[in-house]
Amino acid sequence: MTPDQIRYSNEYWKQRFFLTFLEKKVYDFLEALCQQNSVRVESRVKDEKSFLDKIDRPGKSYKDPINDITDLVGFRVITYYKRDVDIVEEIIRKNFCVDDTHTQDTFERLQPNEFGYLSKHFIVQLSPETLKQLSPERYRIPDFNHLMRECKEQKFEIQVRTLLQHAWATLSHKLTYKAENEAPRELRRKIAMLSALLETADDASMSLQKLRQEIQEKYRNEITAGNLNGIFIDAESVSAYLELSDDAKAWWTIAHEIGWQSLIPIQVNLNAIDGIGPEDVEAERKEKEKERQKRQVSNLIALLGKGKVEKLSELDEILTNDKPLRIKYLRDLFMQLQANNEHVRASIHDIIRAIVINVKCQVIRPSDLKALDYDESLINIFSKLCNLCEKDNDV
């Protein structure tokens, strides 16, 4: 090491604890801000070797490297869609002080006929409002106020890119060519082709997201108007139907009156982790609840498939026809579950599945329920009650 490198190395290690502290605080804050619009958030503190290499890079000159280099602490927010990149930018500008002089959008460097690395790089500092939110109660660290004063002055980088832009950046980095003219001519063309394909896929994913939103809106309008005949069973249509249909929602009221209780709320135990506050726990709980509802919709759709129910109008008929008979069946099912010491907690999805099994008992077989992971005792109860119900229908 040269004398300058030794001096810079010493300065780096003096600041290392502070830089790691800043990374932890901002990572938690940024992840909470972006959780609705990102695949994931990544972070890192530049290691000593990278720090020293950057100082020695040709064309670079730093009077005070430890303060002049703006990406000693770096974050990357990876989104699904290009639209989310713009949303995350708004979040960053609202919650951080952005240095627009050094912030860059790599897209602006490309000519219309060029393809390559795409990402937005924001050079930022903590804003006074953000500093207030990072309360000392959340971090058990001595001399917290001194560290916060240093955090206020430290600049750092936040990169924002889509998942496919990140794939391109990762692939191009693996090729180890820092500049395009370093690559062999034949390889340069292949690299450009791959970049163009990924950019096209990024645009296509945006189109898919837009189409999905249009379909969701169409379903909601049709269900609200009562036009169910042309709507096929899928995750979007079933979710909208359960949310908007009074007939579907009425069954949960009936089940509750019979004695069924709601599912136990999902519990999240993150309080033992430093830096985790009540809002983080609640966000995690909501995310897990969303995942549970997706599984329940998926299970309902799988059962409807076994029962050869293809359209919402058919599901609606199942829930509206012979209602007194279905209520009697649910009451018998509840009593049988209690007699067998089975749990009597359920969701609206569970209640509707039970009704579908009852109505479609001539189509759905015990083997179908077994394939859908129903346990043997529950299959036996359904088989018994559906047979009883068939006798009632014959009378």
TrEMBL record:
Swiss-Prot/TrEMBL keywords: Coiled coil
Ranges of residues in domain RelA/SpoT: 43-183
Q: What is this protein called?
A: RelA/SpoT domain-containing protein
Q: Does the keyword Coiled coil apply?
A: yes
BP-aspect Gene Ontology terms: guanosine tetraphosphate metabolic process
List the Gene3D superfamilies.
Answer: Beta Polymerase, domain 2 (3.30.460.10), Nucleotidyltransferase (1.10.287.860)
The chain's coiled-coil residues are 194-221
Which organism is this entry from? Answer: Spirosoma profusum
Pfam annotation, one family = RelA_SpoT
Asked if Lipid biosynthesis is a keyword of the record, the answer is no
Read off the SMART domains from this record. Answer: RelA_SpoT
